[in-house]
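Protein: Alternate signal-mediated exported protein, RER_14450 family
Species: Paramicrobacterium humi
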Amino acid sequence: MNTTKKTRKNILTGLVAGAAGIALLAGGTTFALWTSSAETTAATISAGQLSIVAGDQTWTDESRDSTNVGQPINLNTFKMVPGDVVKGSQTFDVNVEGDNLKARLDVDLSKSSLSGGLYDSKTIEYTYELKYTNAQGSSTDVPLGTGNEFQVPKGEGTLTGTIVLTYPKGVDGDTTGMVQTFAIGTVAFNLTQVR
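Structure follows.
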């Protein structure tokens, strides 16, 4: 009899367990866990930029009594004579872009050595100027020489360097400077972030 009771008890336990399993599979759970979710908003951050790029260099004849005033010349083939004035210009595109970016421009004249017989004899007079023009067209003089710094405004602008060479008229019969040269070295423009 004991065996019969155990068999019945095992059958009954199996039926109850099976019914409970079917009830769970059918979704008959008696509790629920709540859940909620959120996501961050996607964002992209962009870096600014700091750049200076050399543009074209041009030379023109600015001699007042010349028929070619304002006309382009090739400095390598143009032969200056007393009374001549020539002007060279070079532009540089400058871009300072960044919310907290501050930049300075240093003009390094250490490689801009002037040389040649016309320079040594002080025959040729020269002036050099540098201007910064912002995108709105406002211009500012830029100091030249070691130790001079120019705080470059944000945005795009143009830096224009101009050199004017004047060969003054001498006295009649003066042959100083004939078949001599006037060499112009390079000028380095360094744009540096200071913040």
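Remarks: The chain has a mean pLDDT of 80.
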